[in-house]
Structure formats: structure tokens, C-alpha cells
Amino acid sequence: MPHVLLVHGGGHGAWCWADVRRYLDGAGIASSAFDLPGAGADPSPRAGIGLADYIDATIAQVDAIDDDVVIVGHSIAGLTLPAVAAARPERLAHVLYLAALITETGERGIDSIPADRRPSYFEMAERSGEYSFLPSFAAAWERFFPSLDEPQARSCYERLTPQPLQPYLDPNPVDARASNVPRSYVLLEDDRTFAASSARMFAQRAGIEPIVRRGDHCWMLTDPHACANAIADVIAEVARPIFDR
Fold first, then answer.
1. CA of 212: how far to CAs of 20, 53, 55, 69, 209, in Å?
2. Which of 68, 109, 164, 207 is most exposed by smallest CB count within 10 Å?
3. 87 near 57, Cβ under 8 Å?
């Protein structure tokens, strides 16, 4: 049975996967999550963090797991996973992009952010003193977890950490289609961070048709049971060839 490695998106941390991991554990599926550099409890100075740091940190996590890995990447983890798959194709059983931002080789993540939001990223980063940004509570509630009530949304917001801007500005070193590792993409119909048209374009960049599910951007927080079930479906597909021998 492969091990599930959960990679969080911008401003989040390992904490956001806690409920998903409980469901996976109940189904007998081993999983782990970690804080990317400068996120969650990781103490790395945010001003010096770039996309290569995310890639290196994720590869180190893959290398620390003894079993084959199903890697799940949320949101801007889609900038990281293609390079991880290219570096460790023999270790990965599947790559699952969850409402993820995917770019072509040489493209920057910032250029796929809706044009009306891009200026605010730079403005917040310049004001921060560490070239990172954190949206207001109202903006985060609207974009990330609108299906939560206000107390739930505030509880999640209080755990967010400023997101370094540089990973959005670094060009993508590897095309998502470069690796032969099987991959899939979950498009969330109620996603207000990446509209369905953008998500379909991201999935196309990975050379796959998206799996469409009902949910908002931070599905692991707003419907962790459904999120865990989607991951379990991938595990079942990965494990079936073994069980059918």
C-alpha cells in the first residue's frame, strides 16, 4: 500500500491536512504532511525562500518515506510537484493535483493568477518587509473557505502564515507532462481562487482531464471526508494492479 504525502498550498501548513489524515488513517492508509519552508511552524526566513526551496523540501520528504508515494499537492503545490515527479519518478506511484496551479515550462505562477489580483500580491509583499503576503480575513474567507461559517473561517485564518512571493516569480523548471508518473487533477466546482476555466487549463497543461467534484478551494478544510475519499480512490487505482496479480 503506498504512502500518501500531502503538500499544502500558499499560506497554509501541515495543520490543514489534519482531518483528512484522520479519515485516511481510519481507512488504513498511511499519510504524512509537512510545513514547507517558511510556512506553519517552519522557522526559515521568508524573504529568502524561492520555488527551488519548495522543490528540495518536498523531495527530501519523498526520500524519507520507505514505501512508494502518492503525492497530493494543493493550490500552489502544483508549481512544485512536476519537478518532484521528474526527480523521483521511481518513488512516486501517482501525482494528485488538488485545485492546483500548474504552469508550462519557463512560465511563472504569478502570470496565471487572475489579473485583477496580481497587483495586490506585489503591494502586500512590498509592505511586509519580508517579501511575503497574507490576504485580509475577508479576502481569505471569500477565496479559500467560503462554505465555512465565520467562527470556523476565523479559526482557519488565524493559522495561516504569510506566503513568500518569490515562488510565484520563479520560472517553472519542469513541464508537468515530462514525467511518466500517473497523474490526476481534481477540479472543485465552487473554487473561488481558481475558476473552473482556469482549473481546466491547468489540468490540460498536465495532459489530463480533470475529475470534477463539488467543493471550494480549501477542500481539505471544508469537506475533509470528501477530500479523503478522493485520495482513497487514487489509492485504490494504484493498488489494484498489485491485488489483481
1. 19, 31, 27, 23, 9
2. 207
3. no
